[in-house]
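Posting this for the archive.
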Amino acid sequence: MRALEETDLDTLLQGAQTIEADGHGLKVARLADGSFLKLFRRKRLISSSIWSPPAQRFAENARRLQELGIAAPDIIETFQVPQRRANGVRYQPLPGETLRSHWRDLDAASRDAQVRQFGRFLARLHQLGVYFRSLHLGNVLLLPDGQLGLIDLSDMRISGHPLTSWKRRRNLQHMLRYEEDIRLLVGEHRAALLDGYAAGCGAQVARRLASAIQRLHPQ
């Protein structure tokens, strides 16, 4: 992780397009060369991000996912900007469209098939030990080849062994935080989600997930 002066960061951002920002400033930008830059600011003087920079976690998680055969951004570099108490990662973005956006344009039958695909993908993540706390339909991309990939990777742990039932339930709670995602995944297409999940990790595990969904969102 290299150190950047503020002027170096400003140079990188010349001609950039802001993709995401908040009250503290820029969060994600598309740079002039087509790569993306994601910036993480340390909001407290003492923070775990000092010894575990989120940009470094993002890069490491991208590498681990690719090793597991899951599409993730290609990392160009990670860096620190000490004067701004910030660290960042520059990467080549995955091509594609978020599931949340893509599904809005589908008819019910087509969306049902894709929810089933997402269920299999979710099962695969859980079987591989991927615990992605920021998992939602805005962080899963449908790629041009029809496969699924992940973005926004800093809030993730990869254990290397299947997730426990407790972690699967917790991941479900993280996933079902958005009204649109709830409506699609457990309102209109619950059976497809669970069919896909069962295909990926077995009927017994899927039944436990179904029970967790029922407790959270009774039909």
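The radius of gyration is 19 Å. The chain has eight helices and eleven strands.
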